[in-house]
Amino acid sequence: MKTIVAIRRAERFSPNSADKDTAILQAVCERLAQKGLDVKVEEEDLLLHHPDRMAAVEADVYVTMGRHETTLRWLAERQQQGAVVVNGPEGIRMCCHRKALNQRLREAGICLPPASGADGYWLKRADGVAE
Questions:
Q1: How far apart are CA 18 and CA 12, in angstroms?
Q2: Cβ atoms of 113 and 121 closer than 8 Å
Q3: pTM value?
Q4: Does the N-terminal or the C-terminal CB of the chain have fewer CB atoms within 10 Å?
């Protein structure tokens, strides 16, 4: 049986949405448990403040809502070692840096509104995370 660890996002990355984020991750964990899988939940802040705990967390699959750069580096290392990471570090980084996301979408040929002018648009949090 595969070991699954779900990582709950640190509350500072979910202003006014911590309850919603917790509910989303809990629903995912419940669905996995209904399929007979064993899921352990870890708190991102606890992992960040206890590096020895982070080093001890081993899984075949990580389901993450974590956003801290240390968490993302750790998950990238796990990924390189063969673990499956759902909501992978590169995707999370891309979504946290909207300028880079905008550029990547344009490079992929995704139709976007003009970047400037009277018919321009706004991308929430143009760069960085909501802290």
A1: 8
A2: yes
A3: 0.76
A4: N
CA distance 118 to 40: 50
Task: Please report, to the nearest 10 degrees, the dihedral formed by the alpha carbons of residues 115, 121, 124, 128 taken in order.
Answer: 10
Give which of 13, 90, 82 is closest to 44, Cα–Cα: 13
Tokens of 54: 């982070």
Residue 2 CB-density burial (10 A; 0-12 exposed, 13-18 middle, 19+ buried): exposed
List the chain pLDDT tens, one digit each, 131 residues: 688 999 998 888 877 888 898 999 999 999 999 999 999 999 999 898 998 888 899 999 999 999 898 999 999 999 999 999 999 988 888 777 777 788 888 899 988 777 676 766 655 554 554 44
